[in-house]
Amino acid sequence: MDSNKRSDAEEQSGPGEQRASPARPPFGKKQLPSIPKNAIPITKAASPASSTQSANGTHASYGPFYLEYSLLAEFTLVIKQKLPGIYVQPSYRSALMWFGVIFIRHGLYQDGVFKFTVYIPDNYPDGDCPRVVFDTPVFHPLVDPVSGELDVRRAFTKWRRNHNHIWQVLMYARTIFYKINTMDPLNPEAAVLYEKDIQLYKSKVVDSVKLCNSHLFDQPKIDDPYAISFSPWNPAVHEEAKEKMFAHKRRPDDYNKGLPVSGLSWVKPGSTQPFSKEDNPLQT
Amino acid sequence: MLVSSSNGGRALTLTGVDPETCMIVFKNHWTQVLRILEKHDPGRGGVVGLRFGPIPGDEASAVQNYVEHMLFLLMEEESGQAGAMGTILEFVVVENVMEKLFLWSLRREFTDDMKLEQLRMYKMLLAQAKQPLLHHKPILKPLMMLLSACSSSSTVGPTAPGKGCSSAAGLTSTVGPTAPGKGCSSAAGLTCTVGPTAPGKSYRSSTVGPTAPGKSYSSSTVGPTAPGKSYSSSTVGPTAPGKGCSSATGPTCTMGPTAPGKGCSSATGPTCTMGPTAPGKSGSSATGPPCTVGHTVPGKSYSSSTVEPTAPGKSLSSSTVGPTAPGKSYSSSTVEPTAPGKSLSSSTVGPTAPGKSCSSCTVGPACTVEAELVSLLHQLCRVLVKEASVLELFFHSSQDQGAANFLLFSLLIPFIHRDGTVGTQARDALTLIMSLSSQNGLVAKHIVENTYFCPVLATGLSGLYSGLPAKLEVYSDGWFCLEKNDWLQVPALFQFLNSLHFCCTVCKVAHPSIRDQLLGYIYNGFLVPVMAPALHKLTLEEVMTTTAYLDLFLRSISDSALLQTFLFFILRHRHDNVNILDTLVSRINTPFQLGTVSLALFRTLIGLYCEDVMLQLIFRYLIPCSHLTSAERHRLRERDCYSITASSLLSLTPSFFIPKPSLAPPPKPDYILWSKVTEGLLRGNMGMEDLFSGGDSVGFSRITSSEPLMDKNYLHYLYDGRRAVCVGVQACVVWSHPYDGLNPSPNEYEEEDESLPLSTQTHTPHPASETSERVELEWDDTYDASPDEEPIPENMIPDEPPKHIQEMRKSAIMLIKGSYIEESDFQDDVLVYNLIAQKDARDDRRISVKNGLNKLADANHMTNDTNPVNHECETLAFANGHAFEEPKLELDAEANNLEQISIESKTPKDDFISQCLELIRDLGGEEEEEDEEHERWMREEEEEDFSSFCDDHEGEDEAEEQLSRNHSGKHGISFTGPFISVLLSRLENMLENSIEVNLLVTGILSHLASFPQPLLRGFLLNTRAESAAGPRSLYQVLQSVCVQIEQHAASRPDFPELVHEAAQYLLLKDQALKEQERDVVLQDSSSTGWFLNGHVSGRPRKPLPPCPRIPAHLRDRVFATFLFAEFLKELAAIAQEHAIVPEE
Q1: Predicted ipTM > 0.90
Q2: Which of A53, A255, A276 sits opposite B757 (nearest CB)?
Q3: Looking at chain B from residue 718 to 757, which residues have their Cβ under 8 Å from any Cβ of chain A?
């Protein structure tokens, strides 16, 4: 796996760094485009995201903030989950669109590197479940051979706030490559082959993986500064980033450059008494 | 002759000149010089008269010329092979040239000019010599002698007779051996202060002294200054060899090193008479006793004064005041240079004399000598730091002199607290030595064991503190904290801060043993004996001033160990058996500026992100989780993914802030509005940038237009909220517990004091008394947590003390165990604060006013009832005596007043009521009230009150019960602590608060809300419906305020418009402050203490737009309404940011 992701397109890119990105205006919030470009417009009347707070009209003003923060919260949950082999990065232009890539490390789809895009409905979390579309349609019973869309809805028949989270969708997108399900396929050919002729299925998968990997260095399908793009290993560019990644763990300090803040504590761990630490109060 | 080095000839270089030639020249010069020297040598000539005989001017100048040439040659000489001495240097060393020259200068009139000349000579030598000189004893020794001689600049008067001198020399026997002349030895007298006795023990015994008197108020004002005094006397006393010294030691603690003995003892007189500068009013009373000290025989007078019970405190204080006293004695002493004693005292006093005296002192040449001396010392310190070998020499050279005596260091001590460049340079030099000590245990040991560095530094703080104004009257009504612009204008304060900064520096760079000793002295010599009484002074104004000082100090401290000492004092010290922290918390609820200043203090404390502070203030009440249901406990650590909290908070926005339905855009999909909002904000079309871009009428009109005011600046709040949350996360990384409902476990909370290893607190020696019995102080809590736990049955028996008064008494007795009941100075606080707490905690504003009045009236009843409990009467009498009048009374008058009243125990009822009315007016009650109205209200009150209890306060009755259970040590109560209670109580009063109070209260609350601990966050940002039994939550209080606002707006149709105008004004003001803050941050980003000022404060420098013409009686309410809406946004933004903080 010699490919390297752009350093700013890793999962490590927290929202804070995005905020600090020079490309943004100082108070930069992500703007949401009216509708994701290649998403199907949602035709049904937009329901107010929150049923609790439309009474006095504050929701009308603040709804967008709630939406954005819901998505950001989802994103932090994704990071917290540390899903193996999955990296996502919200789009620069819309918090409703996330770019992702899955690395498959064993099984039928071993060595597959599949780029995908997550589209989140704009009435999140009260709408449908997010959609996952692979950049290159992977040969898989649950992936539409034309659009590349993964059948997510079967796993999340009804999207329930507080119970369902986007990281679960991502997890699901990974699972399908390890545990093949042929029920109600979007790609009947793959389903049939998997059931009837596993060898042919395997070879088709190998072809599909090769195809996907051959397009790895292509320009991202969606033109967005935060789209995930791959480039061949170039020591001049990548070595330093790699060393940094291996050299030190991300600490909270990095999160907040320019804020040299340290609190104080003389409380002994396990004690609830002030000044219970016995050691000398050197600089904390 | 190659060299003709006049002063201007220094440009000459000797490069390429034969060293042999130089040597010959040097020797020739020396022969000439020596000839003159020997001619006047008393030992050689054997003629006594010569010593006093004048030295002909031509001979003196000849010597001077030769010496100049010689020095030049010496400086220019390169060192020899392999670092060996050059020949000239060798000659100098062998012939002991420098010492002979020094003795020569002594033999002549050792005037200031002479000293200057010598000092400059050495300075030049050190700075420019090309080979190391200080390694050589024949050079080092005379240098040390010179330093000793100069350090007490005017000690040896020109006409100082032999005898006086020799007697002084007796004291200075340590230096004696090397001191060749007697005049010199007298100058060296200062070294005797560096006696080997351990200061610690005697010090402690002396701390008993200052705390002893306490009875009268005047003594307590004196108190602050007393410790330093008594301290000095006891520590210095033992080491002072001479008799007279004991009396002289009084002042010498601050300037001990320079007190040379007998002459000095008589000198105490003058310093003592300088009492007039004693802080506040006590000064006048203090002047009496010290005068007696001055005139009577020293030593004796001191002991005799101890006979009188109150005398010691006073005389002591007066003598501490002495050092800080500017002027008189000093000038007089310069006038009479022949009086050695006096001039001595003046010069010693000088160092610590702030401002005035020093400016006068710059006139004299003595000051120049000091400046030059300190400059030379500084230079020497720099050399020391660079070359460890030189340090050794300095050390051993002193040891040779008979005492472990790091003279260089001791000489600097008197200048520690100086202002101006001399002080700065001295502190810099000392800093160098301090940093040296961190690597050199020997130096550290010496400083700790053999010098008075730490006590002088610490008690100097006390001395400087006593010079601070006891009242700050220059500031406006809205003033609540001392900012840079404020303290820059108070030289005494500036000087204090300088010394405090120096303490920080020492703590940072010095050896731990020095740091620990210093901290111990600061705790026991400044905080406990000075700050604690000062925080308990009698008038609100003085207490307020002290609080503001404390706040400033906390903000100024940049060293964590020193900060720990201060915090330990605040959190753990008990003054009159009441925890300082509890007292401070209780004051939040006072009206007047004291409440505001106290809020500012807590803003500072919270801004420290100190776990110990937060634990004591808040977390210890939250850890048991009794305020949470089990379901809530499980949800504590969850994220609020969908901004439920934010939307609940924002839904409390008063309706008139929200555009009318007709104006609102038709329902659209969110994203459309979203993009409009954000793009607009990003372009600056709707945000504050636009509003303030030109400050033009367009911007102004925009905000009053129909556009919703609400979402204008929400992005800014999000930005600030994110910053606050991230800072909190980062700052609390060092904390020991996450406070997430699991750790510490709810069952784990230890009662205070059992497990506290006070004895192990080695770094800060704490008096044993602190570990003594601890009583949970709850009197304030009861009134705050459940404002009116009992209906007042006032119609029943008017002659008996009303029930709530009885309650109050009961709880007061229970809580304070009677121990300080006799103490007068806290009682009134208790009463006043209680009454006010009760008043403030009312749900209904109007009722509260009535009740407050009523209770006062009740109290009055009781006073007249000759209540059997004496102290109760006294309490009320005190309260009546001064607390309710605006504290403008003169102190002594007040004291008299108090006594009188407490004896008579009776006050004219009318007066009392009128005072109450005045008080209530001051509290911001209805201004147009008439007396009859009051009476009517009082009549009505019972019904209203009762009904309100029935409706709203059942739950709190329960809480009260549970609370009382807590007294028996049980958990399971739902009580969130006095601090939260008092904050919420003030918040609920928002509409009546001044804008400063509201800014502080909301600022503190939002700061607290930004803390990452789930327990705190969960409590403050919980917007779920509360169970009836739980404590009041922030959300409930906000709901209550919202209702108040809606009601008010409904009753006044013009109210919304006024609020919009006020909004515009306040936003502009905020902007101006932000700019100012930015400037400040840019200017001195270096001086960042631990305190992180989360909120803008202070008065903007930029001119503001005129405040809209809001009727005065509505103004606070109008401002508060706008602030309320902004506060909701702020909290909502913080809640939203909490949801997206990355996991660690």
Answers
A1: no
A2: A276
A3: 718-719, 722-723, 726-727, 729-737, 744, 748-750, 752, 755-757
